[in-house]
Amino acid sequence: MKTLAAQVITPEDLLKHWQGHRALTRHVIEAFPEKDFFEFSIGGMRTFAKLTDELLSIAVPALKGIVKREVSPYSEPEEKLIFKAQYLEKWDEATAEIDKYWQELTIEDFNDTFNLFGQYEFPIIHNVLYFIDNEVHHRGQGYVYLRALGIEPPFFWER
Amino acid sequence: MKTLAAQVITPEDLLKHWQGHRALTRHVIEAFPEKDFFEFSIGGMRTFAKLTDELLSIAVPALKGIVKREVSPYSEPEEKLIFKAQYLEKWDEATAEIDKYWQELTIEDFNDTFNLFGQYEFPIIHNVLYFIDNEVHHRGQGYVYLRALGIEPPFFWER
Lengths: 159, 159
Known about the structure:
Chains A, B: Keywords: Metal-binding. Chains A, B: Belongs to the DinB family. Chains A, B: It comes from Flavobacterium cupriresistens. Chains A, B: This is DinB family protein. The structure is a homodimer. By secondary structure, chain A is mostly helical. Chain A has one domain: dinb family like domain (Four Helix Bundle (Hemerythrin (Met), subunit A), Up-down Bundle), CATH 1.20.120. The first copy, chain A, is about 60% helix and about 5% strand. Chain A contains five helices and two strands. In chain A, strands 1-2 form a two-stranded antiparallel sheet. In chain A, a hairpin with a 3-residue loop joins strand 1 and strand 2. In chain A, helix 1 packs antiparallel against helix 4, helix 3 packs parallel to helix 4 and helix 3 packs antiparallel against helix 5. The longest helix of chain A has 25 residues. The first copy, chain A, is globular. The mean pLDDT of chain A is about 95.
């Protein structure tokens, strides 16, 4: 293993951090009434179902692309999910897939550059941080939707 | 220096990542009309001025507390800012202070546990990730406020 500059978080901890955020996002999906998950939005933004489509279309496909070093364009699934329960099932499948692919990442991989979706050419660590940030960002939007619907969102630190 | 487990991001990169997010949050503050920054909200949530108060009350005080290992309770400033320009000025002061205090962190510090604000007893790396996540979360709320006001928010990748 080549020598690395001193760094501040282990892969195990970063995975735990990401999966902690994903657990919170799952609570947010659960908190939406069935109808509002698919229909409610503010200011012409996407519904939380649509935002969840994006999160699912990034997480596993992106991580798999990184691990296999296969550059594929970003795409959302053809199959349209129509129940929240289907989203939760996909979410849980993704949780297991992420855990599995993460094990294939070596410590050196994080500093390698990868052209994610053929669009984002960055060190892998920054691709991973981007997935997390993007999820936190959209989930923050979901919190506003829930509040606007008169629903108390889960605590931010509930992971 | 003691031996550390292999890890995935340098302190310099993490600072750059945080300050990149802070630059984007600054754009979001700028994007609000003066009046709406202080008055607009959805579903009984805080205004973006109030959310910015929180972000300012965490960033420098928290980092300073960590560096000095001084446990002080969380508090928001007594001085009430009434113009967006004052917030932007405070924001820029905080940017410089963060850069300054960050230099005092050693690589070992990140794995040390610190009782942030006397409330959050975690390894310092997790305290820092929490500041960033919290900012991304609240900024995501700001994006919805802007959209609800008919204003195009800055691009998420504009740092």
